[in-house]
Predict the 3D structure of the following.
Amino acid sequence: MNFRNFRKLPVSVLGFVIIALTIFQVRPAGSRIYIDVNSPLQAKIPIAVPAFRFEGGDVTGRGLAKNMADTLSNALDFSGLFQLLDPAVFLQNPDEMGIAIQEIKFSEWRFLGADLLVRGSYRVQGERFELLINLFDVINQKLLLSRTYYNSVEDARDTILRFADELMLELTGELGIFHTKLAFVGDATGQKEIYVADFDGSHIRQLTNNRSMTLSPNWSNDGKQISFVGYKHGNPDIYTIDLMSKAIQRISMRPGLNIAPAYHPNGDKLAATLSFTGNPELYLLDLRGQRRGHQMAASSPMSPIELANPRFTCWMSTRRPPPG
Amino acid sequence: MKGGELSQALMLYRALVNEKIERNWALPERSSRVKGKLEAVLVVRVRRDGTVLDIQFDERSGDSYFDDSVLKAVLKSKPFPPFPDIYSPKEEEIVIRFAPEKVSS
């Protein structure tokens, strides 16, 4: 505010400012105590996840109470951000602990050293269950996140992981990784096949059953498809599999190598190394394996990686950089 | 002589407060927003028995997750250690500067 504006202020405001300055005198700085704090000793945020409260319905659903809390605890532990409090130190039976903010005994949780508390309650009706989960800030005695879900009992784990993702978003500003999956090559059957697992390596599902060498799984950006290289017909060919329908398509079976498929970020094409001309070259193919445009580069390019920016593709090459 | 005793007592007091707050300061290395050098300053008004009367930010880091973590560290440290007998004020403003050097694991 410059002086000219200052003069335009109504007298009442000026009067208030003068009174305020008189009441709230600036304290002399010399009497303060100064302290530097440089080392946070808690590298993880202490969080309490008691077993969820079973509110009734089918008694067979009672087991879910600990199950769901364990699933959530494991996911949060996996993130590396949290220190899970040992349920043995909890002061109350989880079935008697409240769920709503006015029922939470914040002072007890603080005494136990929890910064955060997750409370869930649910009821089961036949194949379905209704779940309420609240996340509390114990220090500020605040409700940070509240979600209700109505799902099939079968999807209990998935529901909990969805909440874990949202919890991460609330606390870090970034969605959690608990719904991500890993694709990998495994040889448990004696042959190399493609498998998919949850973020933590659990829930492994075998995707292919080619009984031959199957390699190089690569996710489409939307997570709905995986492309891979299979030797089912003797030659390295490029396949895609739709994760929902499990339908497998052989999209490139040209003579020579058909390898290293990598989805374009748009999802409508993929880059791959093909050697039907005699030399391995990089090509763009559509999802039916038809060539789109010209070859992209010469001199033994391999292993293309499509970047998030659709204008660029990375690859390995024996090409020498131009001199100078 | 009295001055020396007082400054020794205050040094000990600062160490006690520092120790309590550090123990209660949870700052995960991997929390996504906590990157680079961050610094925040809190002014805590404390009664001589250690009761925390008021907490204000004198300087925010600009990172809400970091600012939240330092505020919680002070809240979790209530009450503060009582003033040393030799230190006479009824209450005092304690200026706490949070500037992590490294996160211990």
User: Anything to note?
Assistant: Chain B has two helices and three strands. Chain B touches chain A at residues 10, 13-14, 17-18, 21-33, 43, 65, 69-70, 72-73, 75-76, 89, 92-105 (CB under 8 Å).
